[in-house]
Amino acid sequence: MTSVIYCCGFRHLTLKTQPVCVNFVVRCLATERPGRQLSKQEPRKLKITPVPPPSGLTDAIGPPDSISNIRPIQFYVPPDETHTEKDFRLQRQEVLEWNKQFWTDHNSRFFQEKEEYVQAHQAKDSEGNIQKLSPEEMSVFYKTFLNKNWHSHLNYNKEWYKKNVSLLWPAFKVLIIRLTRKMKKT
Amino acid sequence: MSTCSLSRQTATLTWTGQFVYRWLATEEVQASREHTLRWWSRKSCKCFFATKAAATTTSPAPESAEEVPHVENNSCVTNHVTKNVEYIMRTVDIEKHEPLTLHFKKSGQLIDIKASHISENTSLFLQGNRGMYHLDKLSSSSMSGVFPAHSVVKSPSSYSLTVFEARPDRSNPGSNIESVHDVEWRDQKLEPKKLFLYYKMLSKARLTGLVVITTMAGYGISPGAFDLSVFVLSSLGTCLTSCAANSINQFFEVPYDSQMNRTKNRVLVKGLLSPLHSVGFAAVSSISGLCILYYGVNPVVAGLGAFNLGLYTLIYTPLKRISVINTWVGSLVGAIPPMMGWAACTGGLEPGAFLLAGILYSWQFPHFNALSWNLRPDYSRAGYRMMSVVDPSLCQSVALRHCILLTGMCLAAPLLGVTSWMFAADSLPLNMYLCYLGWRFYRKGDSNSSRKLFRFTLIHIPALLLLMGISKASFGGQNKEDKDNKINEEFGETAAVAVESS
To answer: Which InterPro entries match (chain B) (predicted)?
Structure first.
């Protein structure tokens, strides 16, 4: 069993306070198969990136948000960013924020209402132990939630389609800009 | 849950990392199990022993634990009750030499380390059981807040780790961490080496494979003469069109796919390809696919392909959020590929083509309704108006109804001159078993019966098409008969492969 540990913050408690840790090995996990990607001469020593790589020359995409499940993106700003590129970046950012906002609200509402439903319908057996609700009992909640949010889903869907499609043309323009820039450099 | 393996730890306590997990259940459970539980308050960093529980856990000082009877801390309990978090108490042995990996969120490092170096505020991810555990301080220090002042733990040599395990609700993909890749950031750079893999994922290789198989079956079963080049071109064209349909579908569904564990690893969700890239891929493959069908096969097939592409991406995909009728539309989408195969062979749509389409159409219901049965929580949260969520009883009865309809259509196949009477006979056991499973799903409606039905549908359709191919009524031109038989054998192999892979 391999175990991976990660820290929930509180930097001051990390290695510096632990003198024994001099001999640790810093391992690369930024690439999916470190063994394959790195040559033999290269030490297996790299930063992995639970925070966006600071020197990245591309956009970086993060882990899904724990509530909204939407992955955050850190946008790379090229030094010679054109107007089109900036507009595109800001538009994407805006869509991302909007998505995150919707799903955060939506999912937290879902979990809260689910919790309330469970609390309200939980039965106890003779010994006082809580009986878990069966999938059939839960399905009543799922149905109500879906029906209750029909309009919000519909509006969201419409908006999302619009936003998603409206990003395509700017994306294409930016692609052309970046390609020409690359060609000029080489 | 338990404390059973604790007796083994005495000798190996130092640095081996005996992990004690705890369970803090809801209030009622806690009251009933007073004797085995400990409470742990994360905020105040204190451990409260319900009773003698500590005596059985690891611990530097079990005796002193016994001295602490029942510490009440209601605020702590209610706090957890509202969250409905459960904690489990059990122990796990971790080998001394086994490296743990520390993941520092702030600095972004992963460090291999011994268990001994772990400090507080760390979380532990065990790949073995995919659990994410939040570590308390080393117990030697955390205990000090718990025990009465006179029984301070003295020996720092006896380290053990108290592990605080929240039983995770895995239904939300964001909190369902399955590997370290689920917590890391990644540069959005296109990796040309993996492009083929990404395209395969983008076009949902398995689904496309099934679509192509049904097209090939349609071609094989139709009465026309067999022409290898037309056969290959129609399969290729259908394959490309299906790839295009699937990538457009994913382009539209990114935020929805993010919401479900089943779909959270799709390329666009993970940002492995850009939306523009996927649309470009779809455009190229749809245009080339439809051109192949139009010029290489015939306009009827190309028309059907274009119609199906539009039906899937423009009607079915948004309809999932709008109305429960999406399943019927989706079934229609699944019914068209065999018609395309048929039309590729004969150039027209005879009754047989519709029969074949009807079989595929009816098959979708037991298949999809059974699949969606166990995904109700996900569909509800992601806003999909699936029959299983909106009207569970309808979902069951429709599945059963179509099992029966499917049996009827198979029996009618010889009447329409599509197959010989042999097909009616040898498809009967398959269909009867499908009906039986459908009936069980209808009566019971539990996860077990739905799963069984779903699994059987995966075997059922390739087997049925194979039987149909074997016992087709007329083998086109007589001199082509040998060739046909060969193709049927080939198809049999493909179908077998498909069954294995699914």
So the answer is: Protohaem_IX_farnesylTrfase, UbiA_prenyltransferase, UbiA_prenylTrfase_CS, UbiA_sf
Q: Are A56 and B321 inside 8 Å of each other by CB?
A: no
Of A78-82, B66-70, B341-345, the poorest mean pLDDT is in: B66-70
The distance of A12 to chain B (nearest Cα, Å) reads 10
Per the listing, tokens 């930024």 go with A30
pLDDT at B471: 84
Residues 16-35 of A with CB under 8 A from B: 17-18, 20-21, 24-30, 32
What is the pLDDT confidence band of residue B180, given thresholds at 50, 70 and 90? low
Asked whether the predicted pLDDT for residue B500 surpasses 50, the reply is no
Residues of chain B found within 8 Å of residue A59, distances taken between Cβ atoms:
187-188
Tell if the CB–CB gap between B119 and A17 is shorter than 8 Å. Answer: yes
Contacts 24+ apart (CB under 8 A), A55-62: A56/B187, A58/B187, A58/B188, A58/B189, A59/B187, A59/B188, A60/B185, A60/B186, A60/B187, A60/B188, A61/B185, A61/B186, A61/B188, A61/B270, A61/B271, A62/B185, A62/B186
Q: A118 vs B84: CB contact, 8 Å cut-off?
A: yes
Q: Are B275 and A118 in contact (CB < 8 Å)? A: no
ipTM associated with this complex: 0.74
Q: Say yes or no for a CB contact (<8 Å) between B109 and A47.
A: yes
pLDDT: which is higher, B60 or B240: B240
Does the pLDDT of residue B222 top 50, yes or no? yes
Average pLDDT, chain B: 70
How far apart, in whole angstroms, are the C-alpha atoms of residue A112 and residue B344? 54
Strand partners, A161: none
Query: How close, in Å, is residue B186 to chain A by CA atoms?
Result: 5
Q: pTM for this structure?
A: 0.68
Top-confidence residue, B166 or B16 = B166
Instruction: Choose the closest CB to B121 out of A13, A61, A124.
Output: A13
Confidence of residue B168 (pLDDT cuts 50, 70, 90): low
CA distance A103 to A65: 10
